[in-house]
Amino acid sequence: MGKKRAVVLLSGGLDSTTCMAVAQSEGCELFPISFRYGQRHAKELIAARAVADYYNCERHLVIETNMEDIGGSALTDHRIDLPVGDLERTEIPATYVPARNLIFLSYALGYAEVLGAAEIYIGVNALDYSGYPDCRPEFIRLFQQVADYTTKAAVEEGRRIIIKTPLIGLTKKEIVQLGQKLQAPFHLTTSCYAGGPEACGRCDSCLLRLRGFAEAGVVDPIKYARRPE
Amino acid sequence: MGKKRAVVLLSGGLDSTTCMAVAQSEGCELFPISFRYGQRHAKELIAARAVADYYNCERHLVIETNMEDIGGSALTDHRIDLPVGDLERTEIPATYVPARNLIFLSYALGYAEVLGAAEIYIGVNALDYSGYPDCRPEFIRLFQQVADYTTKAAVEEGRRIIIKTPLIGLTKKEIVQLGQKLQAPFHLTTSCYAGGPEACGRCDSCLLRLRGFAEAGVVDPIKYARRPE
User: Fold this and answer.
1) Best CA proximity match to B222, nearest among B6, B7, B8, B17
2) Which of A73, A220, B130, B228 is the most exposed, having the fewest neighbouring CB atoms within 10 Å of its CB?
3) Quick check: helix, strand or coil at residue A72?
4) CA–CA dist A140, A159 (Å, integer)
5) Is the pLDDT of residue A201 over 80?
6) From A68, which residue of chain B is nearest by alpha-carbon distance?
7) Which of helix, strand or coil describes residue A177?
8) Are A139 and B155 in contact (CB under 8 A)?
9) Mean pLDDT of the A24-50 span
10) How many other C-beta atoms are found inside a 10 Å radius of the C-beta of residue B194?
11) Cα-Cα end-to-end distance for chain A
């Protein structure tokens, strides 16, 4: 009998790459899924592919979709400015993409069903995150409920597909420590919203990442145009 | 103040077109959303566009996505045969597309949020349907729960987006009667899975439609290659 299969939502960033490492350490055969959804830059897809190759995945599914035609986010609409990093703000920032995690998990569920996978890994994180509602534990719990009523696998065969969120209770520091312990290929990842040749070091995502590495006492191996003092 | 806005999932078939008529009769400004998801034929998108034009919609959003790369359905994979119509079968048929309604509703939710729409209409139907799990009331109820935890609109402003299923408790006969009363443009619709120049009259979808019209005592205005005796 082969390994159990797992679909892993892979953006090419720190969190999803650590999820790949966790899923592998738990004995899964990895089936990463990524999305070209009209985001500002393709750099994260190049990173995702590199991570998938690093783990020798049989297949890396890339879903193509024009989510930018829905609009409403600085990540998919160039007319909306990217917010400059401010980790203390309390409102949901302009980088929020309406229903993104719901859409991504829905595709992952269909893919898991076709593959016969028992698990979907998603690197959501409710502590050090950007304030998006669809990263919270309650969102995942409710998605699990709807998943259990959606698939033919669950309805006809009682075969549930479980949403696994190994990072949900971790700080960014702890994610870096976990990834390092599991030898996640941090050098292949990218987290920057701006998507330049080097990470900007200024957006929310860069700030969160750099703070996590600093607190973990680990050197972030990727290049930055600017590192905070 | 303008009319309230509603997103309507529009496939160009009998049910979703009747949903357009219902939403209009309830005073909504209609924002139809359709999907080019690797289905066998584009005929339903042509029908959807004609229905959107009939209702003078300001915009008809077509989401493009390679769901066929997920596979697992006769509707998106030409290597899987379309089942010949059998309305008495009990298992879920090969035309089931894994997680399709979940994916479609998730996009509709993001779109509704961006538009400031308060409602999403979907023409699911739990009586005369093809046995898909994601057409059942419980699925819709659970999706509503997750929707209430997903959007920035709901989380920050308490502005819920309601999933409306006006056809869920109707038979096909009653749907035909409702659509006729509301002058839904049945002549523009298509329901056939096969997608030929005329409806095949043999697939599940044609059989359900024809039975509905016959029981309602209404003549189906579209052309069929063959009508059952």
Assistant:
1) B17
2) B228
3) coil
4) 18
5) yes
6) B63
7) helix
8) no
9) 93
10) 17
11) 53
Predicted TM-score (pTM) of the model is 0.92
Q: Do B91 and A155 touch (CB under 8 A)?
A: no
Tell me the pLDDT of chain B averaged across its residues. Answer: 89
Min mean pLDDT across B61-65, B205-209, B216-220 is at B205-209
**Which residue among A65, A113, A149 places its CB closest to the CB of B142?**
A149
CA dihedral B68, B70, B71, B73 (to 10 degrees): -90
Q: Inter-chain contact B150–A102, Cβ cutoff 8 Å?
A: yes
A199 forms beta bridges with: A224
Name the residue ranges covered by the structural domains of chain A.
4-216
Question: Closest by alpha carbon to B189, among B165, B213, B215, B170?
Answer: B213
Maximum pairwise Cα distance, chain B:
57
Task: Give the pair of three-digit tokens for residue B62.
Answer: 């077509």
Cα dihedral A96, A118, A24, A141, rounded to 10, equals 40
Q: Which one-letter DSSP state was computed for residue B112?
A: H
Q: Where are the beta strands (DSSP E) in A76-118?
A: none
Which tens digits make up the pLDDT trace of B126-144? 876 566 788 889 999 999 9
Q: Which of A65, A66, A67 best probes binding to B when mutated, by most B CB atoms within 10 angstroms?
A: A65
pLDDT in tens, B141-157: 999 999 999 888 788 88
Report the pLDDT value the prediction gives residue A217, as an integer from 0 to 100: 96
Architecture of domain B4-216: 3-Layer(aba) Sandwich (3.40)
Taking the alpha carbons at both ends of chain B, their separation in whole angstroms is: 52
The Cα B119–Cα B113 span in angstroms is 10
ipTM at complex level: 0.90
Strand partners, B29: B5
List, in order, residues 6 or more apart from A184 with CB less than 8 Å away. Answer: A17, A18, A20, A21
